[in-house]
Predict the structure of Mitochondrial carrier.
Amino acid sequence: MSHSKPVIPQNDQVAHALAGAGGGILSMVLTYPLITLSTRAQVESKRAQTTFLSSVQQIIAREGVSGLYAGLDSAVFGISVTNFVYYYWYEWTRSFFERRSAGKKLTTVESMIAGAIAGSATVILTNPIWVVNTRMTTRKTQAQAQEEEESLPLSETTETKVRKAAAPPTTIGTLLALLRKEGPQALFAGVVPALVLVINPILQYTLFEQMKNAYERRKKANITPQVAFVLGALGKLFATSVTYPYITVKSQMHVAGDGGKEGAVAALRRVVREEGYAGLYKGIGPKVTQSVLTAAFLFAFKDVLYEQTVKLRGTVARRAVKA
């Protein structure tokens, strides 16, 4: 029997990262149809705008229920990587500040700095994943938008294109087609508004941390998953409402097909010029609903998953020592 001890990760950053990834996956699966609806609304032309129920009916009629889950595989992969990277760097930065302040809770400024570092690292590493996901989610909308721009009746050729668009492409197939047609730079389309959107999780997590600290000071106890659900929802509601115009622009840049040549400011001006300021808020209803539910589920799941991850790690460590 070997007495050598395998290396067991002991840092809480990894446990938080795994819990964040798991919570993100569960939340994404539960709310994905709302992502599909909001993303398509963000990239469709002004003439194509439809109500929430009409959008659902159209997608189901043309693509089946599976149309509401277009690109789910890439989204699950994307959210797991995104949350793992974000929470790892956020917890690492938070631990750094807490060590310097002898274990005191983070101040508002420190929370914002931690969020900025974690968010920037996450955007750079995961932007290509979300470009591919947006392309997959909006494939039908793009075919219809092209037809509208040509101002032609729906022809047999277009019907064929739409049917082909409805056939779910694979993540790898979408990635390879993107690289072949537009080059590697297309994978970083929308990275500037995505970096600007780092303010979204900064606002969200800063507000959450401060509400959590206030609750724990008042109750003199750790927050429950139910309270985390509510606080997470409130934080995300505020953050998404403030940053939504850049979310719209980012989605449009992901599907523009110009390799990201149009800048974020130019895209904002174009939308306002063509559709008015209301164009910056297309799809905000399902997006805010999805974001709030996702954040609420994530914060509720994450603490539970974190506790289970720590317990599992301890069990593995004890078994390794006995071995």
User: Anything to note?
Assistant: The two ends are 7 Å apart (CA to CA). Confidence is low (pLDDT under 50) at residues 1-10, 143-166.
